[in-house]
Amino acid sequence: MLHAFVLIDAEPARVAPLADALAGTEGITEVFSVAGGVCDLVAIVRVQHHDELADVVTKRIAALEGIESTTTLVAFQAFSRHDLEAIWDLGPA
Q: pLDDT digit string (tens) for 33-78?
């Protein structure tokens, strides 16, 4: 499974409608509206192959009205305390 984070700059009036549209887009599992000046939305993409990622970003996301630009960050490895705790959980004492 390939994971990617797509940072999306959007027209201010389109942020909420875009978030809804992105959340219903195949290949996108989560969408967050964010603050901090880097971007307006972050979409988490989970697909099986790189060509699917290219399709999601260039055909599905970029085609939406109000998208000004995107930056895609491809994840190499996931680190999660939740997963580590589950591995080491011995159950009830």
A: 999 989 999 999 999 999 999 999 999 999 999 999 999 999 998 8
Task: Delineate the domains of the chain, giving CATH numbers in brackets.
Answer: 2-88 (3.30.70.920)
Number of other residues whose CB lies within 10 A of the CB of residue 29: 12
Q: C-alpha angle 57/81/31, rounded to 5°?
A: 25
Please provide residue 37's backbone torsions phi and psi, each rounded to the nearest 5 degrees: 85, -5
- Model-level pTM? 0.84
DSSP conformation letters of 65-93: TTEEEEEEEE-S----HHHHHHHH-----
Rounded (5°) CA angle 59-12-44: 45
- Tokens 């195949």, residue? 26
d(CA 17, CA 79): 31
